[in-house]
Amino acid sequence: MVLWVVIAVVLVGLLVLVLAAGSLVGRLRPLRRAAMALLRRQAEAEKLQAAALTLAQEAETLRLKAEITQERIALIKVKQPSRGR
Fold first, then answer.
1. In the predicted model, what is the mean pLDDT of the chain?
2. How far is it, in rounded angstroms, from Cα 65 to Cα 26?
3. 83 — phi, psi (to 5°)?
4. How confident is the model at residue 28, as a pLDDT?
């Protein structure tokens, strides 16, 4: 009789464990999808960050070129005689 009680308690415990594991696995699927979406967003953010860095470097190059051009224009204006101004 005691053996049947022990077997019943063990089976009930296993049943509770299986139900809990099933519930946990059911919750993991959406979490996995969300994690994959976050990884995709992270990769996209890294690409955008690299593009922004390149753009910033190009903007700095253009700023330097504009500065040099302004200096050259100033030199040209100094070298030319004034024409009735």
1. 92
2. 60
3. -110, 80
4. 87
